[in-house]
Amino acid sequence: MHIAGSRRILAPADRVRTALTDPAFLKASLPPGVADQAHLGAHEPDEGVTWRLPGGEAVFRIAGGTKDATQLGYDADTDAGEEARLKASIDALLDTLQSEIAGPRETGAQGPMIGLAKAAQSGFPFRAMPNMIFGMPLIFWAGSAIFFLIFVFMFGAYL
Description:
By secondary structure, this protein is α+β, with helices and mostly antiparallel strands. The protein has 6 helices and 7 strands, in the order E-H-H-H-E-E-E-E-H-H-E-E-H.
């Protein structure tokens, strides 16, 4: 089976290449199950960097980018039935690369929270709000308040 993809890493290409070719750097920060089985293979500037990961072997190539971000592509071949394991290993390696050299990964799953995070960093009044109240996140308290209001409207006449 063939797996291919790419990811945008928020770091310059030289930092990405240095991190990809340093086995100690990535092994120290990969999850134990992946780190024990991850081995650096060949790494030629034009051919990319090869990593042997649980589930198969992947070749990572710098596909372009800007001074602040690098597009990192990968190609991998694996046996049938091992593609999920290899994909999980590749994702772990890329997540580690992103978090260790560039900070948290950008994802679309964060949705509108990205705007709130940017507002909080800019000094907007959200910055002064606590993240947790009595050990519970704010969304818990907002959901509880909405539940309480619905309960009162539905059963208020019987109280």
